[in-house]
Amino acid sequence: MKSRLIVNSILSLLVGCFIYLFFRDPSLIFFGWIDDVGLSNSVMFFQETMSLTRTDLPNWFLYSLPDGLWLFSYVCIMLHVWRKSMRWMGFIWTLISPIIAVSFELSQLINPSLGTFDWSDLLFYTFATIIPFVIFRKRINFSPNSILSYEE
Questions:
Q1: 82 three-class SS
Q2: How many Cα atoms sit within 13 Å of 82 on the Cβ side?
Q3: Claim: this prediction has a pTM higher than 0.85
Q4: Where does residue 40 rank: exposed (0-12), middle (13-18), buried (19+ CB within 10 A)?
Q5: Distance from C-alpha of 7 to C-alpha of 5, rounded to nearest angstrom
Q6: Distances in Å between the alpha carbon of 31 and those of 12, 18, 37, 108?
Q7: Which of 72, 106, 122, 130 ranks highest by number of CB atoms within 10 Å?
Q8: Tens of pLDDT along 108-123?
Q9: Do residues 15 and 69 touch, judged by C-beta distance below 8 A?
């Protein structure tokens, strides 16, 4: 059976993509890729079908959840990569994307020209980082006492 980390990573990535496909503005860069592979007509059909549902969905579902799901996916993949021996280097690689995401969100609080700061985004980034460590802690061999170095 495939690793639950990989399965959860793929599922969360797909759910985040489907939220974008069904409910987000087709002018986003993401939809350029959809057009490049010739699926824009199908996506437009699904968006039109889901348009009534979109008005009932909360903003956090449309805007914060997909980013949280993608970050969750990244953390799961990194935990899978480092599962046999999670040392300091593994923690650093696992936390790179969450640190970048949180830093970028906080930079929007300081400089609004970089984007719109949102507490929901920050909350989803935090949970997306912590939850995989909690759920999959038994599947990972944590070695926190190792030194920060390259090991073969």
A1: coil
A2: 23
A3: no
A4: middle
A5: 6
A6: 19, 12, 10, 24
A7: 72
A8: 999 988 889 999 999 9
A9: yes
Q: Where are the alpha helices (DSSP H) in 37-118?
A: 40-54, 59, 65-81, 88-110
pLDDT digits (tens, 9 = 90+) for 84-112: 878 888 889 999 999 999 999 999 999 98
Label residue 72 exposed, middle or buried (CB < 10 Å: 0-12, 13-18, 19+). buried
CA 10, CA 66: separation in Å to the nearest integer? Answer: 13
Structure tokens at 105: 């969100």
Residue 51's contacts (CB-CB under 8 Å, 6 or more residues apart) are none
Helix (H/G/I), strand (E/B), else coil: 142: strand
Please report, for the chain, the start and end positions of each structural domain, with discontinuous segments joined by +: 4-139
> Residue 145's CB: how many other CB atoms inside 10 A?
7
